[in-house]
Each structure stands twice: as structure tokens, then as C-alpha cells.
Amino acid sequence: MDIRSSARQHKRPEEEALLMVSQCSALQPQDRVRLLTQTPDAATLTGLTHLDVERRIGRPLRSQWNPRRLARGVSRLRWWLQGGSDRHLLWVGDQAYPEHLALVYDPPAILFGRGDLGALNYPRVGVVGTRRPDQTGLSAAAELGASLAASGVAVVSGLARGIDGAAHRGVIGAQTGHGEYGECDVSVTGAAAGAEADVAAGAAPAIAVLGCGIDRIYPVEHKELAGEIVARGGLLLSEYPPGTPPARYQFPARNRIVVGLSQVLVVVQAPSPSGALISAEFALAEGRDVLVHTVGRSWSGCRQLLDDGARLIETVGEVLQERILAEPADEARTAELLRRAQEAKLSLFAGLSTKQEEHR
Fold it and tell me: Which domains does the chain have, with CATH numbers?
């Protein structure tokens, strides 16, 4: 039985119990579900011995179970949760927990969120790639983010430097009428602004998955971008409790959540080896559709993915036509999404041309 089905057969654990268990890094997601379905209240958890926990999860625990320390950390986490109505604690058995994420191998049992959970109701495409792309890759990622958002598709990524950040900035560009292509700040003005206003009104949000606590934005230069994502109806997610600093081993684990949230994954540029390549290989193993942007076809990781069965794409229209996103019987809807994506692309490039004229 998968962990979501197991969790749904039992009542939701107490908030204090969820917060206690979320802090125990020695527990794997399936361990957390086994422990919390058998011991859903904090009072009983606090009374468990190390051996009790091992019996409940069915394996040895590599570090000492310390319920008193976990209980002391609850007040800090509760203080964070009570900081606003846009702060969330998701349990794998909750109705709001994303269905696609629950289907991947080892889905997180507990998620912390900040922003609008409604972002999870949109069709979702993951956009990933190297932290060190070239200018063509940055531009392609930003254009893809803007066009997907304008088409009503939420963009999922990891808020990392490079491709991730460019894709998220493209989403913000579609929502505001301003975009960034690489390091070019694009402002939409004149006739283009009118067309962009229509697109912006229905633009989908961004979803960023962190490899650290949700209050510890990494890299730090993306703190403002993270704030923009939340302010414009997007969502930040992490399986790590607030206050958790970034650590190298946490980012590959973060990548499986990006894949799990994404109905389709687009790799823009990726070397081999790389985190983006790990994400894409995981997606292929999970049976998710993986696409490679044409600007990355010469990159070693992208070539490997194409050899493994990923498909090469050049435009957002090819992404929107993927079987899991497009409704085969609704050709009119698909055509409308393509029209809106093209509008966003043209108006953003019109803004770029205006900026170039101003600097001549």
C-alpha cells in the first residue's frame, strides 16, 4: 500500500505531532507515516522510547530518538506557522496534498508551504537546468516561463541560480507586463502593453521547491524573487522545517519533489553530471514526460536524455500539446492556449526592442 493511501485510512495527526516528527531527520517519509498513523498525538509521541519508535517504523533508527528536544522545537515552528494565513503545513493524507506528488517514489510525508495553495490546482510544468547556462539558455528559460504562465500553466522549479531563476522571472514577467531574458530587464510599453495586460490577468503562478527551510531562501540573491512569487499568487514548498539551513545532500531530495509536482518536465540546458540530469532521469523512471529544449541539444546531459527517450522541443506550443496537459477532445482550448502564449512572447519581445532602442 502506498503511503498516501495508508495515511488516508487514519485520522490526521495532531499539528504538534506533525511538527515534532518533521524535525527528526533520521526518519524517512515512509517512517514518518508509519509512526504518525500509529501515534498521531504529541503526548504519546513524547513518551516513546527509542526502541518503541524502531518497532513502529520497522527498522533501526541511526540516531537517538529524543522526543524532549523535538517537543522544544515545536513552539518555534508553531510561531512560524502562525505568522500569516499564507503559511501551511501539509500532511500526505490531506486533500490539498498534490495527487501527482503522492505518486512518486518516496513522496514527502510532511510539507511546509508559503503562498497560495491554489497554485497546485493549475496544470504544472517543471522547468529545470544548469546553474551556469549561456545567454541563449537564460533567454529560452525566461521565454518558456512567461509563455507557460500566460497559457494558464504553473511553472515548477527549484529557485536555483541559472535556468530555475530565469524561468521563475519569466512567470513574473507574464504576470506583471515586465520580464527578464537572461540579464536583460524587459519592460512592456505602448501597444504591446495592452495585449500583455490581457495575458497578465489570467497568468498562472510559479511554484518553487526549496532544499532548505522555507524561511531560509537559497541562494540569498533570490530572496526578492521568492517574495514576488508569493505576492503574485505563487507558492514556496519545502519538506524541511523552517530554520533548516541549506545542505548539499538536501538538493537532490528536493529535485524529486519538483518532478513529483510536474506533469511534464522540460530540461533547458544540462551538463553531465548535474542535478537537472538527476531530476530528468528520475522523471523518466517515474514515467513522466521529459522534454529537452533545442537550445540544450549540444549539452552532454541533454544528449544523454535524448538517447534515453526524451523528446526535443523548440516552442511552448509543443509543451502544451503534451498528452497529459492538452485535452484531446478540446482542440479549441489548446488553440486558445497557444494564442495566449504567442501573445505573451510577442509583447515581451516588443518590450525588449523598446529597451534596446532606448539604449542606442
Answer: 3-113 (no CATH), 118-354 (3.40.50.450)
